[in-house]
Inverse folding.
């Protein structure tokens, strides 16, 4: 009986440990995903700025043409 | 002799009759000619009037078309301006709300946590980790991912709009450059402009061409960025 309780306890601890680890892994994956999204968003922002600048430059040159 | 005398009045009468007939015929002919002439003139006038009316109608139609086009252009610009203003206002509002929420949370944390908690929080993850807005663990992570995705979508839509607008601008600029170049070459060929003026204008056109190419490159770059992650 004692052995069974001890074994059950060990199994429960192992299970809890694994679950925690899986949750951490999932969190890590999510953080990586967020980072990737934010990187692309930042690239989009800088591209928008570049397009705006290029369009403004073109407007200026075309008005002098 | 008597016979001759008796025939003479008859002959005279016949001659008079013929002369009168000729005159009447001539008068009738003259009248017909005049009438024909008048008819022709009337026809000519009618044609001219019809032509004038046609021209006036065409001009009117042209004016109406121009007016409609201008009106459409104005409406389009107004809509664009309105959208831009709405976007700006939304962005400002979001920023204000975010700042207010952040300040409020900081204030509450200061009040509740005290120095000890602050020291414990120090160096624990990034700003997102410390300001969880009442969410914990996985929920917070999901909310943060959702926020990042939304922001990404918003910026992507903005980029698409910019790309579309810039493409139109590029097409118009290309057309203007083509016309300017053609005009310049014609003027040079007919020797209406001196060489230095030709060179100056050519340089400007070349610069415009470069600016268009630059804008095109940026547009291509924008198109290559991923839409969905």
């Amino acid at each position: 009986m004692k052995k069974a309780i001890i074994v059950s306890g060990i199994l429960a601890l192992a299970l809890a440990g694994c679950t925690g680890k899986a949750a951490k892994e999932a969190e890590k994956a999510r953080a990586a995903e967020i980072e990737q999204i934010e990187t692309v968003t930042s690239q989009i922002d800088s591209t928008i700025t570049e397009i705006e600048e290029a369009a403004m430059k073109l407007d200026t040159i075309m008005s002098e043409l | 002799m008597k016979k001759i005398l008796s025939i003479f009045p008859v002959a005279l009468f016949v001659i008079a009759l013929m002369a009168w007939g000729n005159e009447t015929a001539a008068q009738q002919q003259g009248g017909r000619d005049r009438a024909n002439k008048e008819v022709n003139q009337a026809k000519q006038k009618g044609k001219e009037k019809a032509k004038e009316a046609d021209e006036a109608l065409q001009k009117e139609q042209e004016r109406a078309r121009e007016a409609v086009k201008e009106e459409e252009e104005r409406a389009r610009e107004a809509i664009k301006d309105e959208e831009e203003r709405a976007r700006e206002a939304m962005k400002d509002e979001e920023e204000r709300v975010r700042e207010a929420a952040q300040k409020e949370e900081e204030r509450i944390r200061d009040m509740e946590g005290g120095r000890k908690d602050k020291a414990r929080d120090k160096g624990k993850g990034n700003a997102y980790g410390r300001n969880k807005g009442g969410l914990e663990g996985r929920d917070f992570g999901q909310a943060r991912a959702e926020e990042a995705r939304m922001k990404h979508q918003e910026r992507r839509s903005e980029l698409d709009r910019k790309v579309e607008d810039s493409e139109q601008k590029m097409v118009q600029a290309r057309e203007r450059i083509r016309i300017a170049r053609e005009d310049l070459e014609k003027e040079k060929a007919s020797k209406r402009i001196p060489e230095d003026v030709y060179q100056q204008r050519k340089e400007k056109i070349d610069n415009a061409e470069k600016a268009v190419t630059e804008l095109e490159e940026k547009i291509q770059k924008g198109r290559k960025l991923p839409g969905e992650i």
Summary: The radius of gyration of chain A is 28 Å.
